[in-house]
Protein: Ig-like domain-containing protein
Amino acid sequence: MKTCLICANILYNVFATHAGREVKEIFGKVGGEVTLKPTVNQPISSITWKSGLTKAAEWETGQSEPDYYTICNSGSRCQLDHTTGELKIMHLKPNEKLDLSAEINGMAAQSFFTVIALEPVSKPSVRKTCNDTQCTLVCEGKYTTYTKYSWKENNKTIAEDTTTLHVEKSNKLDKSYTCVFSNPVSTAESDPVKEVELFPGQSLRNTLIF
Structure:
């Protein structure tokens, strides 16, 4: 029997090391797909993709089509390209995390992947606390794993990895601030907050801007 090669369009990836081996993390959007691309140094006569210790996809010379198992065995979820060794995995599920490896031409696995399915980030809002000359802006929204925050002044990024931004009155009426939420599969921005809205001359207040 043959192992199912899981194909997936790579949206984002990083490298990690586990048990002395390099593992590529592949991020995909829930409902979307990713493609796993193993290291191939010679023509492929056989290939087995495993999910953990269990076969997922398999092909060898003489077969017209790959065999699919376990995570690849439900409907048309996986596509294995036996010429490149690439495995596409489709219809990613919420909170899904898959550990996969590729064994090529009977050799021990050299390519290891962790597929992580993520929801798109939500659109953030900006809460402001101001006096006549200064404001503290706080970016608020639904936090998820791998969410990052940054701030733009007009269209230029001015701060990263912080939910809070301190600004001072500059009398530049065209200046605006935007909070940005992002993760490896999506980006969302708050509505811009204009300086003219931050310093209208009122006393200290705490307002939520959507």
In short: The first strand starts at residue 12 and ends at 18. The chain has a mean pLDDT of 86.
